[in-house]
Structure formats: structure tokens, C-alpha cells
Amino acid sequence: MKGKRFEKFMKGIFILSSLVSIVSIVLICVFIFKGGIPFIKEYGLKNFLFGREWKPSNSPPIYGILPMILGSFYVTIGAVLVGVPIGVMTATYMSYFSGKRIYSILKPSINLMAGIPSIVYGFFFLTVVVPIVRDVFGGTGMNFITASILLGVMILPTIIGISESALKAVPKEYYEGSIALGASHESSIIKVVIPAAKSGIMASIILGVGRAIGETMALILVAGNQARMPKGITKGFRSLTTNIVMDMSYASGTHREALIATAVVLFIFILIINGIFSIVKRRSLR
Amino acid sequence: MNKFINIAIKLAALLTFSIFFFIVSYIFIKGVPNLSFKLFSLEYTSENVSLLPSIINTVLIIVLTLLVATPIGVFTSFYLVEYANRRSKLVSLIRITTQTLAAIPSIVYGLFGMLFFVIDLGFKYSLLAGTLTLSIMILPIIINTTEEALLSVANNLREASFALGAGKVRTIFKVIFPICINSILAGVILSIGRIVGETAALIFTLGTVPKIVTGLFSSGRTLALHMYLLSTEAVHVEQSYATGVVLLIVIFMINSLSTYISKRFGRLGR
Question: Which UniProt keywords apply (chain B) (predicted)?
């Protein structure tokens, strides 16, 4: 009898624990939305999302986050342009070209790359890449180019890891069949294996996009952080994430609410990306 | 054409490895000469931006966060794998929430922690607020790795245990858990890596005071935050490199430990 009660008690604890993640997500939604939505309502969704100026110290203050939305958008495209080709090709190399010995060096390196703190990436880019970009393109060197390369490098491990397992999951028969039909190693991989792993590779890209949009502290160091409409790839910019950190330390009143509202927009973007990711992933499992 | 593809793919792999190698060796070459005993003194002053207080804070926040998150995460997986009907609504809800939690950017965690723990619950910038924020953040990592480990345990082990008259809880703790402990540990170590590298979720919850925390309600800064603050100041470049070296060494140790443990598990599993 005592044993049965103990069983029930522990089961209760397990159920309670599993509710924690649900409660957490509800709390996160409630507090972020509660902090941001009233401001958006008062200021006007259109003015907020499509306002071309962010001037919190003007009177009356102007809170338009279009510059930051575009900043995040463009830098993410840049990161994809840098990270996806290199990442997918590296994953292809790892699954179909590398010998065991090279693989045993490459794989742990990629794992370590994923573990390097974002601040270390940011600092490295600030001290090494920013001066190079400054010399080549002029200006401060803190711009879309530097930031795109930074984020492209930072999403490499995500893209490589997931693409690699997608490529490895393609049945051997596909490759062998293609070889048997007389195709070369390379064209079998490009025309047969990669198309078969398409949804897995897509999933890796979407996850990479999510990481790029969410990255904050490394980006702050190399983006220049000017809150104005993007003026070209050699000019500084501000993203949604860096907008929050840049201003939060001194913001108060509506300014602070505007920053929380920025987080609401960021949060919704991430939820959309996450939704697309689940759909693609489900398709790749099929 | 084939040749071109072949070369492009090899170049890409070489490039990835070179980027990794260059970043790591650059930080080491620049940082190691700047690692002095002075940097490991107990007091932080504006002349001597000592790392030691931040290192101690980092260790404290790792321990506390794991104490909070590991049992919750592991118990969640126990429920998901050992009790719940895999098709039930609750299970799919938990699955969606953990996936969403994993996708939320750390700055959103930081803001949430600030709004909820720091302001609403009145914890102020404190070790407690930082710990609780990070606990939610690493929960998905622990749940996912534990769940995978539990699912890999052969069902006949459970049946054998039940047949011998053991209850469910006893089976979980005496049969299944010991088999999984290594891969659960590997997941826990991975989440340590996440905590060590975290900055955005901590800057508005733990705060940035460069002193050893004196209690749950005292503010501090972790090593990664320390490096961020040094690099925004731009006067302590040498010390930033040194901090980078320490961070990299910690991450390398964590990674090799996690690989070693999961490899050992692989042998045991067979």
C-alpha cells in the first residue's frame, strides 16, 4: 500500500516537472506581450512597424522600428549568403568525400565551433575583421559586410551539423544506383544525394536563420549600431536584438516599453521561423 | 565540371576548418602572454580588471542553474517516455513548448527575466534572477538529451524489471536511469557550455557588478559578460584576449568531457 502511494507521489512529481516548460513559455509570452502590446496599441502598429525613424530623445519621441527590421533582415540574408554555401559544401565533404582521419579532425572542430561563446566571435571580428573591412571599404569597418560574415561564420556549425545528418540519412542505394548508371561520384552527389536530402538541408538553413536573427552580443560589437534606415552594405546599422540592448541600459517610460515592443516583434519573427522549421522537419522525417 | 565541384567542396571544408583554426589560434597567441597572476586576484579594480570574481560567479551560476534545471528536465523526460501515452495531447504540447523554448533568442530570455524575476518578483539584478532565467533556457537541452537516452533503452529491460515485481518508479531509478546516466551527463555538460557562453540573457538579470556574489540576491557578472564589458570599453584589449583564452579553454574541456562520456556510453549500450 505504501509502495503504491509512493508510486503515485513520484508520478505526480514527474507530471509537475513536465508542466514547468509549459508554464515557462506561458509566462514568457505573458510578460513580453504584456510589456509591449499596450505600447504598440497606443503608438499605433503601423507607425511602430513602418516608422522610418527611431528617435527616443526627440520631443515627442519617435519610435519607428523599420530600420531595425530591415537591418535584421538584410544582415540575415548576408549571413545566409556567407554561411549556407560554405556550410552545405562542408557537410557534403564530411559525409561523402573525407577519409576517416580528416573526418575525425573536422567533426570535433565543428563541435567546438558550435561551443565557442558568441562574445569570443564578436571580439575576434572586432579586432581582426573590422580593421580589414575598414581598410578595404573605408568608413568605420562596422557594417553589413562585417556583420554578415560574422553571423555567417556563427551559423556554420548549425548548418553543417544538421545538413550532414540529412545527407547521411539518404539511403546508400540512391548513390549506388546513380553510380551504377554511369554517373560520376560528384554528379551522383549533386544530382541525386543532395536533392534527396533537400528538406533536411532546408531545415538546417531555417535553424541557421533563427540563430542569425536572435544573435545579439556579438553583433553589437561589429554592427555600428546606428539607428537609421540601412544605407548600403558599407554602412553601419542596428538590428532588432541590438536595439534592445543598446537602449535598455538607460531607457525608461515609453522608451522602455518601445524596447519591449521590439522584443515582441522579434519574438513573433522567431515563432514564425520556428513554425516553418517544424513543417519542413516533419516533411524531412517522412 | 566534376573537377570543379570536387575542388569547390574541398575548398569549402578547408575554409571552415581554417576559420575555426584561425580564430582559436589567434585568441590563444594574443591571449596567453596576457595571462598574468595579477588577473587572478580576488579583487577587481579599474587598474587590474581581475577575472577571478567573474570565474567564481560563473561556477556558482552553473552549479545553481544545474541544480534547478537538471531534476526538472530529467523528470519531464521520465514522464514523457515512461508514463505518458506518446500520442496524448499533453505530450505533443510539451514537445512544442520545448522546441519553442529552444528557439527563443537569449535576449528575449534576458528581457523576460528582467520583467518577471527582476522587476515583478522584486529580485533585482541578482544571482537568483540570473539562475532562474538560465534554468528555463537550458531546460530544452536537458529534456531532449534525456529523452533520447531513455528511448534508446531496450524495452525488455523494463519488462524484466516489472516481471521481477519492481514498480515503475523503482524500475526507472534502479534500471533505466543507471543505463542512461552517461548520456544524460553529456547533455548536462553541453548545457554548461551554453551557460558559460551566455551574455544576452544575463546582462539584465544577473547584472554586471564585477565582484564575487555574496548571496542569492547579490548581483555579479560571469566571465563571458566580463569579456563583453571589457571589449565595449576598448581600453582593456589585452585583458579581453586573456579572458577569451580562459573561456576557450573551459569550452574545450567541456566539449572533450562530453564527447568522452557519450563515447563511454556508446560502449556500454552495446
Answer: Cell membrane, Membrane, Transmembrane, Transmembrane helix, Transport
On whether residue A266 sits in a domain, the answer given is yes
Task: Give contacts of A32 with chain B, Cβ < 8 Å.
Answer: 108, 111-112, 115
Q: Report the CATH number that the domain containing residue A255 is assigned in CATH.
A: 1.10.3720.10
DSSP states along B215-264: STT-----HHHHHHHHHHH-S-HHHHHHHHHHHHHHHHHHHHHHHHHHHH
Given this model, what pLDDT does residue B261 score? 83
Range of the domain at A135: 66-285
Interface residue of A97, A217, A274 to substitute, partner B, most B CBs within 10 Å: A217
Q: What is the pLDDT of residue B262?
A: 77
pLDDT tens digits for A272-282?
A: 999 998 888 88
Measured from the Cβ of residue B190, the count of other Cβ atoms closer than 10 Å reads 22
Using an 8 Å Cβ cutoff, are B207 and B227 in contact?
no
A20/B115 Cβ within 8 A: no
Are B101 and A25 an interchain contact pair (Cβ–Cβ within 8 Å)?
yes
User: Residue B58: how many CA atoms within 13 Å on its side-chain side?
Assistant: 24
Residue A182 counted as domain residue: yes
Strand positions, DSSP E, B65-110: none
Longest dimension (CA), chain A: 79
Query: Does any domain span residue A276?
Result: yes
- ipTM given for this complex: 0.91
Has residue A176 been placed in a domain? Answer: yes
Q: What is the pLDDT of residues A74-133, one digit of tens each?
A: 999 999 999 999 999 999 999 999 889 999 999 999 999 999 999 999 999 999 999 999
CA-angle at B216, arms to B232 and B254, nearest 5°: 60
pLDDT at B241 over 50: yes
Which tops the pLDDT comparison, B223 or B38?
B223
Contact A214 B107 (CB under 8 A): yes
Sorted by where each starts, the structural domains of chain B and their CATH numbers stand as 44-269 (1.10.3720.10)
CB A54 within 8 A of CB A43: no
Report residue A62: phi and psi, to 5°. Answer: -115, 125
